[in-house]
Specification:
alpha+beta, single chain, 9 helices, 62% helix, 6-stranded antiparallel beta sheet, elongated, 300 residues
């Protein structure tokens, strides 16, 4: 609870507190490149209202209240603008995902015919110039590739499983700091798998198992992708519909800004009137007292 005395120096004190609160709000938002603050926190506005109350001037209080409403609506509009930007980005991102899914379907169709005779129990691996049906030997060859690979390079062909190309890239795990291999079946990004070098040594088949399974279930991938595309289309439609929505508080913001302008004009008109009265020269000068009036005043 805050106490102020009307028409005292408290008004100046609270004006100082208001300026400090505005400055702190500006610093915490990181907006130091502007001369005028475009957003006022709830605390700063309450200081402005206390200052207005302490001044004993209804116009100042009305101005502080109207400014608080403008600032609130401006914050709402900025939030709406940010949301609109996010929705536009989401719509573009989803559209790109739909196109990528259609492209993946085409690649899947081409691969399905290639692996029609695929035997998941005895797949043929070809890595680093060596052909083998031993899954553990294939894992060793992948580790050998990872040790010699250049880190953070784009995906490159590293071998094949039953004639299906396997692409891979090497990187450093951001938290564990160890070498990590990321492999994908013939650029089908939904088949991407990754494992660090220690994980591959602990479980040699940690990458082989999912890769073999992905190839064995290629015929199931197209229906899954089609279902995903339908889901993405709905998401894209919702994002587009929301993008076209207008800011619901625009009229209220316009009215609030007009009210601030009206009050500021009243305040400016009053100030100009006060200035004219303060500096105006009186037309009639007061007459000096008579001798009798002076004697009476001294006697009193």
């Amino acid at each position: 609870m805050r106490y102020v005395v009307e028409q005292t120096f408290d008004a100046y004190n609270w004006q100082t507190v208001e300026r400090k609160a505005r400055f702190i709000g500006q610093v915490t938002r990181g907006k130091l490149n502007v001369r005028e603050i475009d957003d006022i926190s709830d605390n700063a506005m309450s200081f402005a209202e206390v200052k207005a109350l302490a001044s004993g001037d209804p116009l100042i209080l009305d101005h502080a209240t109207a400014m608080a409403e403008v600032q609130r609506l401006q914050r709402s509009r900025r939030a709406w603008e940010r949301n609109q930007g996010q929705l536009r980005y989401q719509a573009q991102s989803v559209k790109a995902s739909i196109q990528a899914a259609y492209q993946e379907i085409e690649r899947v169709r081409n691969l399905v015919s290639t692996v029609a005779e695929f035997d998941p129990d005895a797949p043929e691996f070809h890595f680093r110039g060596v052909t083998t049906t031993d899954k553990y030997e294939a894992s060793r060859l992948i580790r050998s590739w990872l040790e010699a690979a250049r880190v953070n390079e784009p995906y490159v062909p590293i071998g094949s499983i039953c004639g299906v190309n396997i692409h891979g890239k090497a990187s450093i795990h951001p938290f564990k700091g160890s070498l990590e291999a990321t492999l994908v079946v013939d650029n089908l990004w939904s088949s991407e798998v990754a494992a660090t070098m220690p994980a591959m040594k602990s479980d040699p088949l940690v990458l082989i198992r999912p890769l073999v399974e992905a190839i064995a279930k290629l015929d199931e991938r197209e229906p899954n992708l089609l279902r995903r595309i339908e889901t993405l289309k709905l998401e894209h439609a919702r994002a587009l519909a929301a993008t076209g929505e207008a800011f619901k508080g625009q009229q209220a913001l316009t009215d609030a800004q007009a009210e601030v302008t009206r009050i500021e004009k009243l305040m400016q008109d009053r100030k100009e009137q006060q200035d004219r009265e303060r500096y105006a020269t009186p037309d009639i000068q007061a007459e000096p007292p008579t001798h009798a009036e002076s004697e009476a005043a001294l006697a009193a």
